[in-house]
Design brief:
Blueprint lengths: L6 H33 L14 H4 L5 H12 L5 E9 L5 H12 L15 E2 L5 E8 L5 H15 L4 E6 H12 L6 H18 L3 H26 L7 H30 L5 H28 L7 H4 L1 H27 L13 H7 L7 H11 L1 H15 L22 H12 L8 E6 L3 H10 L3 E7 L15 E3 L16 E8 L6 H14 L5 E4 H35 L3 H29 L7 H32 L1 H28 L7 H33 L9 H4 L6
Antiparallel strand pairs: 1-3, 1-4, 2-3, 5-8, 5-9, 6-7, 6-8
Length: 729
Amino acid sequence: MSAPAPAAHRAPDRRRRSWLRVLLPAAIILAWLVAAGLGGPLFGKVSEVSSNDQTTYLPASAEATEVQALLGDFNDSEAIPAIAVFVGDAELSADQRAAITDAVASAPDTDGVSTDVSPALPSEDGRAMQAFIPISSGADLGDTVDALGAQLREATPDGVTVYITGPAGFSADLVAGFAGIDGLLLGVALLAVLVILVLVYRSLLLPVVVLSTSLFALCVALLTVWWLAKAGVLLLSGQTQGILFILVIGAATDYSLLFVSRFREELRVTHDKGAAVMTAWKGSFEPIVASGGTVIAGLLCLLLSDLKSNSTLGPVASIGIVFAMLAALTLLPALLLLFGRAAFWPRRPKFEPEIVAAEDGMPSRGVWAKLAQLIRRRPRVIWVLTTVVLLAGTVGVTQLNASGVPQSDLVIGTSQARDGQVALGEHFPGGSGSPAYVVAAEGSLQEVADVLLASDGVESVSVTAKNSPSGSAPVTTDGIQPVGAPGTPAPSPTVVDGDVLLQATLTDAADSDAAAATVRDLRAQLDGRGALVGGVTATAIDTNDASIHDRNLIIPLILVVIMLILMLLLRSVLAPVLLIVTTVLSFGTALGVSALVFNGIFQFPGADPAVPLYGFVFLVALGIDYNIFLMTRVREESLKHGTRDGAMRGLAITGGVITSAGLVLAATFAALSVIPILFLVQLAFIVAFGVLLDTFVVRSLLVPALTYDLGRVIWWPSRLARQHEDASR
């Protein structure tokens, strides 16, 4: 055996290690600070690289997408049509009609408004007028619509109400709905997390440390996503942006809480904060990486989606999860190494190795220790009763109407565009301003026109000729030629590569079920004639159909992928299968209860087909996090104490951190409800309720009781199922 190194040689080694403990954390914190400093200013600039146009997200093979691509060949402009509706308190007088005509003629004076404005046209009842006003595609849609509305109202006489509706009006509503996503959403989410952390840890500094970790992760994720979107690699929308913010804050905080829990455990048995950080890092690395990897795998399954709004969410959210993991495994350890026990002030963890040794890893006090004792006494009764209650909650799933909602109901609260759509339907054909576009071969023009005119859901038909104003409705202006009754020769159209463009004004509002039925019927009748039907209604139909296809394909795929990951992590087949079953049961209950709440309390008009898909992705992928937090610790304890004793130890040790993490994640997703977009409000409720259900029922009662009742067989077919005897009941 070699002699110990002289003290003179050991001293420089200690000094080098001491300097390394200072320089390495400082370098990590500085690197994150610089990256976050670059990403922070981009919060107010996301709109520069994002789009909320539905046609942008349709699959290339969708019929509405093909028509949208061909429209530019017939109309030089890519302007977005707005419909100005003027409604009088009584029949409009000659002076009022003249004033409205003058007001419409001056509309191009508003910045962002195209010059191709149609004349103001009176309704048959004489109480209203409408005009079609194109908004330049490069203009700020929200600001332009607001300015246009203000200008028209100022120029309109008393006794006349002005609405701006149509595609531009509804798009402006969406822009306004997402306006608070950078400030309000983030502020509410961070405040909710801060309050929860202060109440749970009764500390002032620790919540700041954890939130700093989450916020830095979000800033760097946004920096990456922003530049990828600017380069055209990713497609970003307000919806995706909101989910990214919430997901990163929630996931990074969850991973941080797991690390903090391990760090606090180690501080009870060691004075050395560096050793405590290192041991906590080793104990947290596998569950954090496994949890994050599982979420990423689930999210990347969205790449198989036909809808780009789904397929682009996968990589965007995955980037967020990557930085959430990196922050929890690099920045947080560096900050805790800097602060040590002071991070928990005023409730600093005590150095009490004797008490820890006496506990033998099993807390003897607290709610979770008492719950573990309860499960020991009645495991089968608990898991059977819990399962029955959860199954009862799934009954409401049949009440969920997830077949799509009208465009006018996407925004919650007041909506000028929605009110204008109602006024339009009272005085004009419901589909005015949002026609169905039909691209047909020149030789079949007459045949296609006759099919359109014969439909009860079509008010009138026109053919696009040269110099046609972009987005104009079928009215008598230069370039728009009305088609007469069936059999009447159609006017000479503009021909592009052998195709012509017809516009059909629908009898019903473009976003109504009746309009959707009309478009589906037209497509069926025109099938085989080489005609394509597009427009606002067709886009909504194709979006809903693609969403349903995605839901049926991606949900089973996510289950298989996550199950395989759990099998590798837990070295078992039976345990992952049971965990997946409990997670799906929890999701079904959350969806069933949500359906009853949506219909009975909030009285929502329905739900987008993507709502169950997104709810499933987040509840299953994130719910598995808690399975992983629990079962990795149960397996660790089972190796030492047997499965039954290990299950109770795992519950008692992780119960607090899982509950805290669940509260944080539920609060962050609930924050989505401050954005008045129906899709996000529904997703917020489903995920928040589902996470709480998962945390307080599934992970606290069902899984531990089931694991205890089954015993070591749950690890089948691994050696752990054979080598360890269970503790006696």
